Q: What sequence folds into this?
């Protein structure tokens, strides 16, 4: 009997530990725990002064700090796993990260405040087929390019379809960007950028117009970004380069050419511009992110998977640069540095579906 009581007490201790450990492991915030000092991933490598730091990544709601399936089992809450399967376009606005999931046919919205995730996955006539690019307006309106539907779909904050741009067979939209009262959409079918009026939703013009110079024309444009001056940065995947045009559509410069050396591209896709005019170009084939100054000079590159640890890229696709949501990520920054910009990148394979990097400077 004494032996039986001792065994029962041991079983009780084991049972309690099994209950407590998952709760602690899945408690809100644990999944986004600040890394130990020795785990900071910086670019370039020492002894050079770091400019980019890998900060954090996630691939499902549990990695946002959601409580997950254990709570569903214990207290009957809805499962919070909600994965991202094959992401492409990414955007961030007002503490929410928006990700186009090409395999699941939805837009995942990760709320950094509540650490919860929800999907925009309409059915029927509004259903998404192959969502690729996403942009979010200041009022919360969500613009999604759907290559399968050959349209741009416009949703409200709740995911209700408001409008569509384009007719079937008219274009093959991929990247999308918003600037002032204009919508910029890359069109791989017609090798151009289509510019719409945001209010009337009417096509204003396309660019480049009647361009024959190979360094200025577009071959297969995919991703796009527009800077604060209205300059249009286009990733010309088919041309193995990035083309930059001014607000009037005049070609300003071309970055890169076909190749695998620094300053060259094999498969340029995601692009972004920060407030200092630095251009970030994601090369999906390399895979690295190259950073150029406002004059087009190569500054550095980062993200090579074989030498970057958790900061490595794995079949990357989309990229976005942001300065308005820094408060959610400053806690990950190494001591003695502050965050100037964040760079969000989607990886189509591996567990880190969305990785966040920071452009950092010394405090």
A:
């Amino acid at each position: 009997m004494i032996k039986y009581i001792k065994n029962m007490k041991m079983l009780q201790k084991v049972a309690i530990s099994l209950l407590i450990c998952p709760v602690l492991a899945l408690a809100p915030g644990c999944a986004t725990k600040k890394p130990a000092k020795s785990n900071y991933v910086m670019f370039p490598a020492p002894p050079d002064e770091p400019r980019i730091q890998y900060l954090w990544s996630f691939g499902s709601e549990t990695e946002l700090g959601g409580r997950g399936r254990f709570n569903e089992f214990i207290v009957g809450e809805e499962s919070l796993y909600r994965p991202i399967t094959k992401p492409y376009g990414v955007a961030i606005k007002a503490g929410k990260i928006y990700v186009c999931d090409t395999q699941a046919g939805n837009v995942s919205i990760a709320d950094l405040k509540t650490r919860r995730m929800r999907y925009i996955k309409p059915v029927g006539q509004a259903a998404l087929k192959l969502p690729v690019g996403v942009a979010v307006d200041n009022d919360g309106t969500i613009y999604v390019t759907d290559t399968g539907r050959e349209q741009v779909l416009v949703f409200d904050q709740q995911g209700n379809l408001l409008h569509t741009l384009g007719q079937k067979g008219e274009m093959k939209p991929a990247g999308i960007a918003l600037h002032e009262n204009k919508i910029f959409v890359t069109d791989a079918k017609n090798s151009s950028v289509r510019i719409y009026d945001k209010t009337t939703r009417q096509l204003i013009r396309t660019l480049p117009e009647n361009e024959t110079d190979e360094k200025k024309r577009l071959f297969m444009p995919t991703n796009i970004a527009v800077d604060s001056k209205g300059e249009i940065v286009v990733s010309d995947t088919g041309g193995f380069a990035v083309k930059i045009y001014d607000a009037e559509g005049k070609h300003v410069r071309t970055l890169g050419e076909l190749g695998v050396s620094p300053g060259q591209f094999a498969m340029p896709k995601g692009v972004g511009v920060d407030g200092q005019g630095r251009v970030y170009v994601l090369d999906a084939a390399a895979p690295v992110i190259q950073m150029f100054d406002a004059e087009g000079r190569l500054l550095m590159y980062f993200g090579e998977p074989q030498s970057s640890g958790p900061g490595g890229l794995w079949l990357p696709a989309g990229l976005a640069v942001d300065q308005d949501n820094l408060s959610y990520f400053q806690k990950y920054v190494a001591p003695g540095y502050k965050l100037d910009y964040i760079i969000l990148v989607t990886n189509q394979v591996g567990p880190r579906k969305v990785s966040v990097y920071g452009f950092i400077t010394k405090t």
